[in-house]
Design a protein that fits this description.
Strand order of the largest sheet: 1-2-6-3-7-8-9-10
Structural class: alpha/beta
CATH class: Alpha Beta
Helix content: 25-40%
Order of helices and strands: HHHHEEEEEHEHEHEHHEHEHH
Radius of gyration: 18 Å
CATH topology: Rossmann fold
Length: 339
């Protein structure tokens, strides 16, 4: 499925390998969750996710997808994709919190594709556990969304942050809402997964709270800085949140519409703050009222803000004020989390 050319972004010059930079991407499934993996090894019958599936992509038929629990089949740009989702809590008549994890595919020092080692310790059973834990902690129904090519969803992860991924995700949310009876969504995204939040916020009218953590929101500038070709046409055209500022700003203008929080660690070395701040400034200039929170990531790269983003979403869903949320998280240390 993967094309012959390399779509995974190259390793930024004079920085740690991509795998180390994204090692925090699966803190979501491990942090604050029961010990699904013991020192003795995997529980019997559990099969962890595959590096080969991430690197090469997978195909799943409509019939196979229909037999898969918590999955929806959508078509986009002539491609059929089976999206897995891991839900906890009552969804019918409710607006669940939907989480999009970060990227796990990159290049090693020799230019070869590699997969975040943390991803290879995960399995559907563990994500189910984590979703239940977070639904309980946030007092809200929860969906862990399997992005294209990840977490049991078909497709190729190399097509991330593209028109194809955005369209597949939007169609999958519609299908999930129809299947589960959800009335809307609250959205949370980390790093590469954060790119989906502004795209969905711009296109949908059923988003309540939206939280973006460590996202490369000025994506043209990001690709230019790291020597990545910014594609502009077809299914694999890159998505740039800056292009949607005009559609997002009216929705977060403070008149009872959506609420948007942008979490940034000023010391982020994976996605530096200079690629996040212009998006916030552009929204403000266009009349929007985004809330940017400067807070510390809990990893060595100052990039992993997953837990904080989820807690912010929980507070937003509980109708805490912007001031209350900012007071709780502004300037907080990386390990300053509720117990």
């Amino acid at each position: 499925m993967a094309p012959a050319f390399e779509a995974a972004p190259p390793r930024p010059r004079r920085s740690p390998s991509h795998a180390r930079r994204i090692a925090g991407a699966f803190l979501f499934t491990l942090s604050l969750a029961p010990a699904a993996v013991s020192a003795q090894g995997l529980p019997q019958g559990v099969k962890t996710f595959s590096a080969a599936d991430v690197i090469n992509g997978t195909k799943v038929s409509r019939e196979q997808c229909a037999r898969t629990p918590k999955a929806v089949y959508v078509e986009s740009f002539g491609q059929g994709v089976c999206i897995r989702y891991y839900a906890s809590g009552p969804l019918r008549g409710a607006a669940p919190i939907v989480f999009f994890t970060g990227d796990v595919l990159g290049l090693d020092d020799k230019g070869r594709r590699e997969v975040d080692p943390g991803y290879l310790t995960q399995a559907p059973e563990f994500i189910d556990i984590a979703s239940k834990v977070w639904a309980g902690r946030l007092h809200a129904p929860m969906i862990f969304f399997g992005r294209m090519g990840l977490n049991g969803s078909s497709g190729w992860h190399g097509d991330r942050r593209t028109a194809l991924e955005v369209d597949v995700t939007a169609r999958a949310l519609d299908a999930i809402a129809a299947k589960e009876g959800a009335t809307g969504f609250h959205l949370v995204g980390q790093s590469g997964g954060a790119m989906l939040v502004p795209a969905l916020l711009a296109a949908r009218d059923d988003v309540g709270c939206a939280v973006i953590a460590s996202g490369p929101l000025d994506f043209r500038a990001f690709t230019r800085a790291y020597g990545i070709t910014f594609r502009t046409s077809g299914a694999r055209a890159h998505y740039d949140p800056m292009a949607d500022v005009g559609r997002i700003a009216p929705k977060i203008a403070g008149d009872g519409g959506s609420r948007l929080f942008v979490l940034t660690d000023p010391k982020d070395r994976a996605v530096p703050a200079k690629f996040q701040a212009p998006f916030v400034a552009a929204l403000e200039k266009a009349g929007g009222r985004p809330v940017q929170i400067q807070t510390e990531g809990r990893d060595a790269e100052h990039h992993a803000l997953i837990e904080k983003a989820l807690f912010v979403a929980g507070q937003c869903v509980a109708e805490a004020s912007d001031a209350e949320i900012v007071k709780r998280w502004q300037g907080r240390a990386g390990d300053d989390l509720p117990r």
